[in-house]
Design goal:
single chain, 227 residues, alpha+beta, Aminopeptidase, 2 domains, five-stranded mixed β-sheet, 8 helices, 38% helix, 16% strand
């Protein structure tokens, strides 16, 4: 039996099942996010429907497991940062799908062809963070202005296993170093965050960003145009 407890909490899986039940997300995305097969998912769905209050994906242990405290783990985490290429399309898609599970951002399925188009844009750059051998997060930079003097963090995604452990901060600092090295003309960094994604909003404020404007987007604003 495939176990998923190591990466997801009960509440995260519950939320995904609820969104599936409400037809907010299709089953193949659920399976891809959780990394399980249809048969395993329907076992979980049955268990949840039978008793949602006691639903759990955790298993019991007789002995306590040894844990590294969160403060220690935060200090010892080291990430290797690289710029994404077309060989990273699967990684980008996987991180995107898994990170969405814990956010309040409306889910928009993304395909490898969509990601390829974004990679092909001259004014966008993906940075990927590898932690303990896992591709754990990505950050998307977009450039604006006549001389690309404004850099915008258009997306920052971290898989659940590595959330709230400093990976986002590491990527943020890495993006600043990347900009200084490759785009020395950048004078300002901005970040866009969905208004109901309170965790991301608090994180962005915590690393020094200040709110200065609000934008309203339409569905067609997120359509990826053909070149």
């Amino acid at each position: 039996m495939v176990q998923i407890h190591k990466e997801f909490t009960d509440s995260q899986v519950k939320e995904l099942i609820e969104r599936y039940s409400k037809r907010e997300v299709k089953i193949h995305y659920v399976l891809e996010i959780l990394g399980i097969k249809r048969s395993r998912f329907f076992v979980l769905l049955k268990q949840y429907k039978e008793c949602s209050n006691k639903f759990s994906i955790q298993y019991g242990r007789k002995a306590k497991t040894r844990k590294i405290s969160q403060s220690i783990e935060h200090n010892i985490i080291k990430a290797k940062i690289r710029e994404a290429t077309k060989e990273d399309l699967n990684t980008l898609k996987n991180v995107y799908n898994r990170a969405w599970l814990t956010s309040n951002t409306p889910f928009r399925p993304i395909s490898k062809s969509d990601l390829q188009k974004i990679l092909d844009y001259e004014d966008t750059v993906f940075l990927i963070a590898k932690v303990y051998g896992f591709d754990a997060a990505f950050l998307l930079l977009d450039f604006e202005g006549e001389n690309k003097e404004i850099a915008v963090i258009a997306a920052l995604a971290v898989i659940p296993r590595f959330q709230r452990k400093g990976v986002g901060s590491i990527l943020g600092m890495a993006s600043w170093r990347y900009l200084k090295e490759h785009f020395p003309n950048v004078k300002e960094i901005r970040c866009e965050v969905y208004k109901d994604n309170k965790i991301s909003y608090a994180f962005i404020k915590g690393i020094g960003f200040e709110e200065f404007d609000r934008k309203v987007y339409k569905k067609e604003d997120f359509e990826i145009e053909e070149k």
